[in-house]
Amino acid sequence: MFRHFPFKLGSILLLVMYLVQCQSKPTGIKPIYKELTEAVYASGNLMPKNEYKVFALAEGYLSRKMVEEGNMVEANQILFLVESTQQDARSRNAQDVYRQAAQNLQPNSPILAELEVAIQNAEIKMKNDSVNFFRQQKLKAANATTGFEFDKASLAYQVSKNEYLQQKSRYDKTKNQLYLEMRNAESQFQIQNQESGNYALKSKIKGIVYEIYKEEGESVRRNEAIALLGAEEEVYLKLAVDELDIDKIKLGQEILVKVDV
């Protein structure tokens, strides 16, 4: 019996190993479905809806910035001040011309005063010549003077009368001309004032200052953009995607944007 024990023990060991191998599960890799996130690099800017650019209305240089990027602004709020030495000179010149034209139209102005003196002198001479004329007319009726003296007095009276009327006409004409010059000077002065108002740039909307393109001291040209404003509620991304990646983006696709600071 001792001889057969090793054989039986070996058979038991083989049987156990066989049963263990039969009961172990096979190993391997199974495919599964998962959503993949793919990155597409693009450059661009955050833009406001209903954007509005502030343009320079005159030439000069930016003397003062009243706002900074990110500031909230109200409608009709002054944003920037632009100065121009040429415009300042034009404004002062227009003001001086208007002031002088208004003074020339005053009754005591040197121009009108000189014409009034001329009218007074012409009137005095006309009255003297009229007295002499009527005296010569009475003498002629009484045959107490010659025809030559009568004609001489009549001619002098007629000349002085015409001179008087001419001086009055010259006064009225000059006064009307001065009035027109004053109105023209006033119009030019108002135009220059309005032009000077163009040097204070205001916002037309209520919103946020997104970008400022000019710094203080920089020169600006007429119709040059100074800043970008827009509504604060809605913004959008304006991105430039490479042509090799553009086919990875579909209309209406939801995207996750990561901004590199």
The sequence of SSEs as H and E is HEEEEEHHHEEEEE
- Radius of gyration, taken over Cα atoms and rounded to an integer in Å: 51 Å
Low-confidence stretches: 1-16
Instruction: Please give the largest β-sheet.
Output: 4 strands, antiparallel
Give the terminus-to-terminus CA distance: 88 Å
Strand order of the largest sheet: 2-9-7-4
* Number of helical segments with 4 or more residues: 4
The outline comes out as: rod-shaped
Describe the protein in words.
By secondary structure, the chain is α+β, with helices and mostly antiparallel strands. It has a domain at 85-198. Helices cover 47% and strands 19% of the residues. It has four helices and ten strands, in the order αβββββαααβββββ. It has helices at 5-23, 85-104, 110-141, 147-197; strands spanning 42-48, 52-55, 60-65, 72-73, 78-83, 200-202, 207-212, 219-220, 225-230, 235-241. The protein has a four-stranded antiparallel β-sheet, with no helix packed on it. A four-stranded antiparallel β-sheet has the order 6-5-3-8. Strands 1-10 form a two-stranded antiparallel ribbon. Helix 2 (85-104) runs antiparallel to helix 4 (147-197) and helix 3 packs antiparallel against helix 4. The radius of gyration is 51 Å and the shape is rod-shaped. The model is unreliable at 1-16 (pLDDT under 50).
Fill in the keyword field for this structure.
261 residues, alpha+beta, 4-stranded antiparallel β-sheet, 10 strands, 47% helix, rod-shaped, disordered N terminus
